[in-house]
Design a protein that fits this description.
heterodimer, A: about 425 residues, alpha+beta, Lipocalin, eight-stranded antiparallel β-barrel, 9 helices, B: about 325 residues, alpha/beta, Collagenase (Catalytic Domain), 2 domains
């Protein structure tokens, strides 16, 4: 009995000495609500201090382009919003406000635009299908300072960067500049580019439309992946979300043009580029014509071209208007197109790409003769009728080294053969 | 031996008590977690005039909050919603006072705090309709337990169209308020027996107005269940113009039936055994008696006042009401 008492007593005394030893010191001196209120006040101060407001890389969803939106906050919960896009402003520059914004303590600081401003809220309107553009108007503040905020759409979860608008530009000029930058990055004439990320390669269709439509190059049956993007005033192209590749082990979220004119990844773990890819593959892509720049032809081909155009001009076909190299979709073959004032004809070519920039063209006269196309028949007539054309085609049917001044927008490609002939071409 | 037992017991008790007393010297944080200025109105804010109006007219007087600034946590997150336009919120706020609160204030003379006691605590304004993305059905109004009434699609509201205002908004308000009242003082149970066998809780939305009128319901929604029937009867009786009400009663006398995808007058005459018009009037009479006995309210006087305000409502009246908001001084002038 005594023993039992002694044990219980000893144990109870141990509690006395241990009960407060494990009390943790507070990590923060202030309570959570005080810290949240302090953060909100700090964020409000940053937002209102930006003299010319902020540029938000707004994303509604991954299947449509990003929309840069401009915001000017005041200390009285008023915000003026600027926009220039097809959805909320009919492609014209517009400002609207002041409407109301608030910084609220939710599960962390939240920036909400809580009275209607059509330039923003049209992206959240359900429209008739209940979905609309599915854009957010409430944003969790992930981080913020006097120059930059990272916001996360509260409902959809897309991360968006908001950066300070430069004071020396009007809002309308900011949109003009963003459009210029976008045009420099992706020329609207370029229908397809190549994204190389890690060991994977993707064809990027119609990149100038505002979103990257990605198809794995080595898997013709794969469905497209869509990543909308915004361009920023410093030339950065920012994706709606990090691209992670086929197996999810890659990560790239932003690009910028390097000194060589190639879009190179600047954020993410995996080096990546967006470019025309191999120039010979680019030249062979469908839906693109490569028009001979007749005034810049060099070498034998220039002389032979002149002889041919002088000869055909005297006939009923009229003067040559242009000559194109073109992937002919209906013939599933490469071709050379000759357009005169009155007649268009083409002859089929066999094109063989080697390495990155070598392209060998061979005249496929039998294939042309076998074609049922009127234009192919016209081409055969040209071929039979004009010796100067036959001579020219003998020179043209050779191996070229291709070159271009820009890897993301190779709108000019020069075909140069070993004998020194050069055919500079413009993409049409 | 006994003494040592007591000593041991006392020491043991003290030892066990110590752990519970050793950490009790923590003081409460004297700083409130709530900002002292929370809720204060900023006269320089772009929404100050409406905030001030709502504060004076609704919060102070009726203990009701008008929430026109959208917070998605206050709405159904399954829907894509947008805030109401400020101007439209102003219109609906002043009209809510004029066509709803002031009506009851005027008619209910027995209790000057009637609306403060029984009106909802929250009116929530939403700019767009709640469109169900799965089936594209649209919700224009919601009421939750008599505490919160949500009104949708304000951005499409035409404040010059009193029919639209009544149909979309004030009918809903009177309907929901009827629920609040009967949940506080129950209506006679005999009402629930009047249309037994003709309610369709799951299929009311597929019913035609003419067919439900023939069965003694003021609307298809009323044919869902007795309590909706009661609230709809009151709301329709109050809000419908004489012409609309008489049309309804006339329709109720006719033998409308569903035939395939269309609605026809039954060539064989009325076969449902219900005198629709008499039944609707009987329901109104129960509601009238209940209003009088339970609340001391004259339902006909209520209807008369609503009708007077609806029929005399015009653009000039709207502008006069708007001035109650837009004439509120802002900025420095508000602080004088």
């Amino acid at each position: 009995m005594k023993k039992t008492f002694a044990i219980i007593f000893s144990l109870s005394m141990l509690f006395v000495f241990t009960s407060c030893f494990k009390t943790e010191d507070s990590i923060w001196e202030e309570s959570p609500s005080e810290r949240t209120n302090k953060a909100l006040a700090e964020y409000r101060q940053y937002l209102c201090a930006a003299e010319n407001g902020w540029v938000l890389d707004y994303f509604a969803n991954p299947f449509e382009q990003g929309y840069p939106l401009l915001f000017k906050f005041d200390e009285h919960s008023g915000v003026i919003i600027g926009a220039k896009n097809s959805v909320s402003s009919g492609n014209a520059y517009k400002e609207e406000g002041p409407s109301s914004y608030e910084l609220i303590a939710d599960n962390g600081p939240v920036l909400t635009f809580n009275t209607h401003n059509s330039l923003l809220h049209c992206f959240s309107d359900p429209q008739e299908d209940g979905l609309g553009h599915e854009g957010d108007y409430e944003f969790m503040i992930i981080s913020g300072n006097e120059n930059e905020f990272w916001l996360k759409g509260k409902k959809r979860g897309y991360m968006m960067r908001m950066y300070k608008a430069p004071v020396d530009k009007t809002w309308e000029n900011i949109y003009t500049e963003l459009e210029t930058i976008k045009g420099q990055i992706f020329n609207p004439s370029v229908k397809a580019l190549v994204l190389a990320v890690g060991e994977e390669r993707y064809r990027v269709n119609n990149p100038a439309q505002g979103l990257l439509e990605l198809y794995p190059i080595d898997n013709a049956n794969a469905l497209a992946d869509y990543y909308s993007y915004n361009v920023e005033l410093d030339g950065t192209l920012r994706l709606i979300d990090a691209f992670r590749g086929a197996n999810g082990d890659l990560k790239v979220s932003a690009f910028r043009m390097n000194d060589e004119g190639m879009l190179t990844s600047v954020e993410g773990d995996t080096p990546a580029t967006i470019s025309a890819g191999a120039l010979n593959e680019f030249v062979l892509m469908p839906n693109m014509s490569w028009r001979w720049n007749k005034n810049s032809l060099k070498g034998t081909v220039a002389e032979q071209y002149t002889t041919f155009v002088n000869e055909i001009r005297k006939t009923a076909y009229g003067a040559v208007q242009y000559i194109d190299f073109k992937q002919n979709s209906s013939e599933n073959s490469y071709s050379i197109v000759i357009k005169t004032q009155r007649v268009t004809g083409y002859l089929l070519l066999t094109a063989k790409a080697e390495g990155e920039d070598k392209l060998t063209l061979t005249l496929d006269l039998d294939g042309t003769k076998a074609s049922t196309s009127f234009e192919a028949q016209n081409g055969v007539v040209f071929y039979d009728e004009f010796e100067s054309l036959r001579t020219l085609l003998t020179t043209v049917a050779t191996t070229y080294t291709l070159s271009t001044p820009s890897t993301t927008a190779p709108l000019q490609v020069t075909f140069k053969d070993a004998a020194g002939s050069e055919i500079p071409c413009d993409m049409k | 031996m006994k003494i040592s037992k007591y000593i041991l017991g006392s020491v043991l008790a003290c030892g066990l008590a110590l752990p519970f007393t050793s950490c009790d010297d923590n003081d409460l944080n004297p700083t409130s977690i709530f900002e002292s200025e929370e809720g204060a109105l900023d006269p320089y804010s772009p929404t100050y005039q409406l905030d001030k109006y709502c504060d004076d007219v609704f919060r102070t007087k009726y203990n009701l909050q008008i929430m026109y600034k959208l917070e998605d946590v206050a709405a159904d997150m399954n829907y894509n919603l947008v805030p109401a336009e400020y101007d439209k919120s102003v219109d609906l706020a002043v009209l809510s006072d004029y066509l709803w609160f002031q009506v009851y204030d005027k008619v209910v003379t027995s209790d000057e705090n009637f609306m403060k006691k029984y009106s909802p605590r929250l009116l929530h304004f939403i700019g767009c309709p709640a469109v169900n993305a799965a089936n594209q059905t649209i919700t224009l109004g919601l009421a939750e337990g008599g505490l919160k009434v949500t009104l949708f699609n304000l951005n499409e509201m035409d404040p010059s169209d009193v029919y639209q205002l009544t149909d979309r908004y004030f009918h809903t308000m009177h309907h929901e308020f009827a629920h609040v009242l009967h949940q506080t003082k129950t209506y006679p149970k005999v009402f629930d027996q009047l249309s037994v066998g003709h309610y369709d809780a799951l299929g009311w939305q597929y019913r035609d107005t003419r067919v439900t009128a023939t069965l003694g319901f003021v609307t298809p929604y009323a044919s869902g269940q007795p309590r909706e029937d009661f609230a709809e009867t009151i709301a329709c009786y109050i809000c419908y113009t004489d012409e609309t009400w008489n049309d309804l009663l006339q329709t109720a006398t006719e033998p409308w039936i569903e035939s395939g995808n269309s609605v026809i007058k039954n060539p064989a005459g009325d076969q449902d055994g219900v005198d629709g018009k008499a039944l609707i009037l009987q329901k109104v009479d129960i509601a009238r008696t209940w209003f009088r006995d339970a609340w001391g309210i004259d339902l006909d006087a209520l209807r008369e006042e609503v009708q007077l305000r609806q029929t005399t409502y015009n653009e000039a009246k709207l502008n006069e009401l708007r001035k109650l908001v837009y004439d509120i001084p802002v900025g420095d002038a508000a602080q004088k």
